Structures are given as structure tokens and as C-alpha cells.
């Protein structure tokens, strides 16, 4: 019974993340210009497209870790449900935050909001993992799969996001590079973290 | 066969609730202001964000009880299907109702509509549970899980929502507190109800 | 393998119908009026709400028959996939058609478009059932469940919708009653059809 | 465990494709005209409806091949997850691209963007199949089902889309015919490809 319940929580979470990730496209609006101006208008959409790709990849990354964590569960409790809903609440805000960094790409506060939402989602995911490991929700044989998601490196992911908040006030562009780096740098980051944890 | 049918009803319900809960974000629009005015405009979004959090948590709460009820079912009938569709019809109205209480936060009728929709959804869920228990749709061994969802405390949830309708005409703010209390106070409420039922 | 494939087709269909049914709420827009005019503006929303309830119930009805049909399948083929996509394409048009009959409630062509879309969806569903029964996609033991969905009564459902197209040009209101009657009258209709088929 | 993980990847992909395909309807807006002008306004919607049908059928076609490919998998790896997310990122752009070719049906660049997005999605799907076959993600007994999706004919699908990009600059209408032909001509195309591969 629990297994089926678990799969329904996973399915609902997948649903929310699938809708949120697809709503990102609403940020890229077809331009309203004369036919002659369309080529220029499409070139002007490139920053919106970049924001779309960044957010899609980040939400996709969150989906991958969420899916990896839930695959290790043997049961769940009320705290996990509450944390999971909080996680989804933050993920569902990403389309809004993406609009913001796209419309105000040079304004620090826009980047700060984006970084804070991403960081909070990563932190809640880390808390979810830590709680699951402590409360015995993780299958004994799959602890090795769950442990990295509750480790220093996973917390590091959240920390980089939170660090992008003050950085955004110095330079929103550097904040963008920090978010993009989260997608690329996680393998080196993991190696550093392993070294730190020893 | 029935088990699979049941899981498809659950999946469809999850789909509707996942879309409805994610559409809540469309209420928080990226502001259209000059770059200099963005910090103030973002501060002005805080009430919208509060409405988002409240509605997300409430729909999440409805999802949790719906999911808990369906986990106890061994089969379904036409009445259940009709009640379930009515429940989903009310849940899918929550993004509209959230827009309303956000755009007209001081207007009684807005809060009254929100309270009436939430109350109706809770009442239909209670009816669904009562019908399922009476019609033998609940697995014998899982009756103990379903019974609380058809009890006085569950009806109390609906009653608090309906009570917020007249209260809204005295003070919309008090109505807001009543809805928020539904998220926090359900443990004490449950204890009171247990005491009443004895 | 086929069983799992089948369940993924069902899941995709559920997804499309769940999104389409939830998008119906976008038709009910929060009014943009002064606080004092809100009560009147909400009363003015009642026709929109009626259109929402009607379309939600109709799409819900289509979901119920689709779900009943798919529960009888033992395998599928390319024709079924194509018919199913056509069915979903028509269902996904319902939010548009609902907007239309709501914005132009007294204009015959709006009601005619609504009736034609609903009728086409019902007809495609009937064709899907007929094809499944002929091509041996239905589980032997479940033929009794599938047969009614390919019967005269199911075709009657489509026919009432198509009949509402010319009727709309006489009176859109009568067309509305015909659609609403589809939700209420299917039990008597079934009895009539059984009598006809003898 | 892997099987369940796989089904969750399928479910998430289904979710994204189901939302993307249903969002296509937002491109067909109910007209804002006087009651008398509605018949003409609805006739004017026919090109939008044609774009809707084309895109719905194309995304539906992508769903069918994606679903066929995933049914052959016995496990997955990180590369597959990344390619799958890239595929979904491109599919989720189709509602935007459909808006574009509908609003600017005679402008070459609009058709070029549409063709490039479709072609990229087909190419990524082909890469996904090729990777899966090489990395041993495909069930031994189901290789025969996966091989065609990684073959010259599947690549031909992508090539026709990419070819429509330069063709669009000569005539957007010819590009439309090329896309529509993808839906109809795949059986002859398959026969040609089989002949080429010999």
C-alpha cells in the first residue's frame, strides 16, 4: 500500500514539475511587430531563450535529484509530505522568477529573487533528504544512493544559489554565471566535497 | 482490473490538482516598471506571494486528504466518480478565487467567494468519504484510515470555511486568519473532535 | 510490455484531459473594477461560471467513457493511436470553444462551433470503440464493458451534439439545454437505445 | 527499482508533452469583435486552427516515437537523462513556434524557426536512440523495436525538418507542405530508407 502511496506522491510531484517546466515557455512571447521587423525581433528574443534554457535545465536538474531521492524511499511521513509540498511551492515559482530575470536582466534585485528561490528549493531538498535518512524512510539497501543528496555537496548547491543573492548586487551577470555553473560544475564540486568530507 | 482503474482515477485527479496548484503562480505577475522602481514593485508583490503560499498550502492539504482517502479504496462506483469530478471542479476554481482575494484583499465579497469554494470542496470530500464508507468502497483493513476523513473533524474543516463567508463581511482579514488556521490548527481541532465524538 | 505501453497511452491521455479541463478556469477572469463595483461584477460572472461547469462536466464525462474504454483493452495498434490523438486534439479545443460560447452566448455560430467540436469528439470516440472491437484490441472477458461505448446510444450522444449545430441557428439557448441534457439524460437515452437495438 | 525509475522518467516526459500539446490551444484566441462580425472572425481563425492541427499532430507523432523508444529500455544513464531533458526542452518550445508561424505565416524566418526546433527535436531523439543502443540500455529482445528509431529513416525525419529551414526562405508555404508530409509520408519514406540501407 505504502509503495503505491509513494508512487502517487512521486506522480503528483512530477505533475507539478512538468507543468512548471512547461509554463517557462510562456515567457517567450511571439513578437507583435511588422513582418519586416520580425528578423530583428527574433534576434531580440535570444536573451529570453537563454533564460528559458537556463531555467529548464535547472528545474530539470531538480527533477533528477528529486526522482533519485524518491526512488530510495520505503515509506513516508507527514514531515516529508510538508517538506515536499514546500519544495514544489518553490519550484512552481521558477516561471515567475524566470520572467523577472528576463525582463530585468540588469537589475540586481531580480537576480537576487531568482537566486533566493533556487537556493531555498535546494535547501528544502537537502532538509528532505536529511529528514528521510534520520527518520528511517530510506530503504536500507539504497542508503548509498540517498546519502549524497543529503551531503555537504548537496548543501553546496544551495549555498552557491544563496551566495548569488549578494553577488547579484555587485553584478547580475556574475550571478547568471554562478547558476549556469551549477549545471556544469557539479562533477568537480562533488570531488571537492568528497575531499572535504574525508 | 479495478485496481488499475482506481489508479487511473487517482492519476487524473493528481493531474488536475497538479495543474491547478501550478497555475496559482500565474497570479504573481512580473511587474512592468522602470528598473529603478523594481525594488518597490517587488515589495508590493508580497501580498500576492502570501496569497500564493496560502492557496498552495490549502490545495496541497486537499491533495493530501484526497490521496489518503483514495489509498483506502478497493473499488469505486458512478456516484464516487461524479463526486470526485465535482471536487476537482471546485479545486480547479482556486486559482480564480486566489486572483480575487489578491486583487480585492479588502473587499468582503472576494473573501466570501474564496471561503465558499474552499468550504464546498471540503464538504464534497466529506460526502465522498461518507459515501465510500457506506457503499463498501473502502478496503476492510483500511477503514480506520478512511473513517477520520468522514468524521466530525473533517466536517469541521468545511464548517470553518463556510463560517469565513459571513465573517468576511465583518472583516476580510479575520477570514484570512481562519483559512491560515486550517493549516496550523488541524492537530488541536482533531483532538477537540475526538473529545466531542466520545 | 503491451500492458505497460497501454498504461502510458492512458497516462498521456489523462494528462491532456487534465490540463484541458483545468485550463477551463482561465475563462473565468477576475474582474478589473473598483472595489464598490465588485459585487455586481461577480454576479456578472455567473454565466461564465455556468459555461465552466457545463464544459467541466462534459469533459469529465468524456474522461469517464475514455477511461472505461481503455480499461477493456488488451493491446493497441497504430489506428487506435491516431484516433486517440484526434480525440485528444478535439478535447483540447474545448477551452477555446467554452470561451466562445461564453463571450458570444447569443450568437448562433459560437454555439454551432461548440456543438461541432463536442460531436466530433464523441464520434471519434465511437469510431475508436468500433475499431477496437473489430480489430480484437478488447479483452475477451471485457467485451461486455466495451460494447455499449460502440453502440447506438454512444452514437446518439454524438448525434445530439451534431443536431445542436443547426438548432443553434434557431436558438443558442436550446442548444445549451441539449448539451446539459447529455449529462442528465444518458440513463433514459440508454434505455431507449436498448429498446431500439432489440 | 530501475523499472520504476524508468516509468517515472516516462511519466515526467508524458507530463511535459501533455502540457505542451494542450498549451497549443492558447494560440487560438476567441475573437473580440461585435456579434455581427463573429462569423467572419471565425472564418479568419481557420489558419490558426490549421497550425494547431499541424503542431498537435507533430507533437503527437514525437510522443508516439518517444513512447516506442522508452518501452524498449531496460535501464538508463545520465547521458540519456540529459538528452531526454534537451528533447523535452525543444518540444516545450513548439507552442511558441506555432504562435510564430501562425502570426507570421508569410515570413520566412518564422517558418525557419519552426523547422529548426522540430528538426533539433528529431535529431536529439535520434541521438537518444543511438546512445541507448550503443550503451546497452535497450532490452535484448526489444532491439528490433528500437533500431528503426535510430536508423537512416529516423534521421531522414530530422533532415526534412532542417531542409525546411532554407526552403522557408524561398517559400514558407512549401515548408508547411514539408512538415505536413512528415505525418503522411513516413510509410513510403520508411520503404525508401530500407532500400537505401540494403
Describe the structure concisely.
The structure is a homotetramer of 198-residue chains. Chain A has 198 residues and is an all-alpha fold.
Strand content of chain A: under 5%
Q: Total strand count of chain A, please? A: 0
Q: Pick out the low-confidence regions of chain A.
A: none
Order of helices and strands of chain A: HHHHHHHHHH
On the 0-100 scale, what is the average pLDDT of chain A? 88
| N-end to C-end Cα span of chain A | 40 Å
Q: Report the principal-axis shape of chain A.
A: globular
Can you give the helix content of chain A as a percent range? over 70%
- Give the radius of gyration of chain A: 18 Å
Oligomer: homotetramer
3D structure, described in words:
The structure is a homotetramer of 198-residue chains. Chain A contains 10 helices and no strands. By secondary structure, chain A is an all-alpha fold. The model of chain A has no long low-confidence stretch (mean pLDDT 88). At the A-B interface, helix 1, helix 4, helix 5 and helix 6 of A face helix 1, helix 2 and helix 3 of B.
